[in-house]
Amino acid sequence: MKKSALNPLVYSTEHGRICPGCGNPMAACACRQRQNALPGDGIVRIGRETRGRKGAGMTVITGLPLDQAGFVALARDLKKICGSGGTVKDGRIEIQGDHRQLLLAEMHRRGWKVRPSGG
Question: What is the dihedral of CA 90, 119, 52, 78, to 10 degrees?
Fold first, then answer.
């Protein structure tokens, strides 16, 4: 599917969301694969967020250079360690509750270069 200059398609009922960069469905986006191949600065950041959650905090892990299967497997292990729920969204692992110190130690034990983020 090609992107037209006159009609920039962003959604199709047949394919769902369409990438504005390459014009492919998001599942087959070539742009995102190139972006996800870049590992960033190589530092995993662990922080806490309450925004949009009515005051309930979540521990958020960002900066991991993993593919989707790697995110899901790591999130499953970390949720078991914390004894809490969570999810994987947009290249981030979100764990319910404030488990920053526990996850910081666990990620360091697994060999990641880890840094706390936020206040």
Answer: 50
108 SS3 class: helix
State in words which class domain 39-116 has: alpha beta
- The model's pTM: 0.64
Residue 39, token pair as written in the block: 């590992």
Which residues touch 115 (CB under 8 Å, ≥6 apart)? 43, 44, 45, 46
The answer on pLDDT for 87 being more than 60 is yes
Q: Does an H or E element contain 81, and which?
A: helix 68-82
The length of the chain, given as a count of residues: 119
List Cα–Cα distances, 65 to 11, 33, 61, 86, in angstroms: 28, 12, 11, 19
Q: What pairs with residue 89 in β-bridges?
A: 92
CATH 3.30.780.10 placement within the chain: 39-116
